[in-house]
Design goal:
Layout (H helix, E strand, L loop, with lengths): L10 H13 L4 H10 L4 H10 L2 H8 L4 H5 L2 H5 L6 H11 L4 H7 L10 H12 L1 H8 L5 H15 L2 H17 L5 H14 L8 H4 L4 H7 L8 H22 L1
Helix pairs in contact: 1-2, 2-12, 7-10, 10-11, 11-12, 11-13
Length: 248
């Protein structure tokens, strides 16, 4: 493995990115800036583990790119209902998203890390984010995003993700007093710790598998707090919109 990328932490850069992300949660680029600033040795540790697994060795040997599969919308749309690939296609279509969007948002370096295998691993880790939404059952609403990030932090121990989960959860809790927002986020973290190591999964093969089967195989438990919190958030938004309409 060639020259390793810097593992130095950049807390000031991370703090700036966190402020911008709290001001605009759709500014996805700040997520990657924050994570990169606090990456440390976490990616190298995860990559080392990945290289030691049969799945990881095959993926690296074949130079397999998950993005190629996630961008093939026709193939995904043709999969049976209930499979991960079909659910992912419908999720991305409903949210008007594309896998390429994450690629653009993550371009925070002028040049990629010097090691090709490490670059491939980092790209793969980035591209599995929306797949985690599907298998964990969390949506793209603010609470769902905080929960997915907490789940992911439990899996890869990237400090930046932990910071996002904590501050995101606290920010949402202020807007939904009395709701178990913090419990929902912490539950997602606990479920991430209890689940199998999804970072090393053969996602290309899993795209053809039923989501229910994947959850059972990787011991991904259903959330219990997220649903009620999401419903409370929707009711709050509806009341705010009704009040604005009445004011007009």
């Amino acid at each position: 493995m060639g020259q390793q990328p810097s593992t130095r932490l950049h807390p000031i850069v991370a703090a700036r990115a966190m402020r911008r992300l709290l001001a605009d949660r759709e500014d996805t680029r700040q997520v990657f800036i924050l994570v990169d600033a606090l990456r440390g040795k976490s990616t190298i540790r995860q990559f080392t583990r990945f290289r030691q697994t049969p799945e990881g060795q095959a993926i690296l040997r074949e130079r397999r790119r998950l993005l190629d599969h996630l961008s093939d919308r026709d193939s995904l749309a043709g999969l049976p209902r209930g499979t991960l690939g079909r659910e992912y296609h419908e999720f991305m279509s409903a949210e008007n998203l594309s896998a390429d969007g994450l690629v653009e948002a993550s371009k925070i370096r002028e040049t990629p890390p010097p090691d090709d295998e490490l670059t491939l691993f980092r790209e793969r880790s980035r591209e599995m984010h929306d797949l985690l939404h599907i298998v964990t059952g969390y949506g793209r609403d603010p609470v769902g995003e905080a929960c997915v990030v907490a789940f992911t932090y439990a899996q890869n121990k990237q400090l930046g993700l932990g910071v996002i989960a904590v501050f995101g959860g606290l920010n949402i809790a202020k807007k939904l007093p009395g709701q178990p927002v913090k419990r929902a986020v912490f539950e997602a973290y606990r479920h991430g710790r209890a689940a199998g190591w999804l970072i090393g999964a053969d996602w290309e093969a899993l795209l053809r598998e039923p989501v229910a089967q994947i959850r059972a195989h990787f011991n991904i438990k259903p959330p219990s707090y997220y649903g009620p919190v999401l419903e409370a958030a929707r009711k709050l938004i509806a009341r705010q919109q009704a009040a604005m309409a009445a004011g007009d």
